[in-house]
Amino acid sequence: MYFTGFQDELAHVGAEMEILQNRSLLISSRLEVRKTIDGKLAPLTEDLCVVPSLILTLLEEDIGERWVGALNALEYQASNLERDATKDIKAFNEVKEVIDKLMTKVRLILD
Prior knowledge:
Elements: H1 2-47, H2 52-60, H3 65-83, H4 90-110
Helix pairs in contact: 2-3, 3-4
């Protein structure tokens, strides 16, 4: 009787281990999919984000080394955005509009 109970418990533990192994495989698979998606989206999201400190530097600081660095970063981002403009993504147009307005302000400052 003790042996039968032990076998039942062992079978139960084995079944739970199988369930956990299947969950582990599913989680691992999902992680790989997320890594793949993240690898493709990371450059895109970087191009779509205009860092607030960059904007503040260009609009509020005097022209200097830091200001020129911010301008270079903005021009780099604008060129990346132009390169990716063929993609049909609504956010590109929104970010391009922000960058264009910022570049207009910068031109006014430089004149």
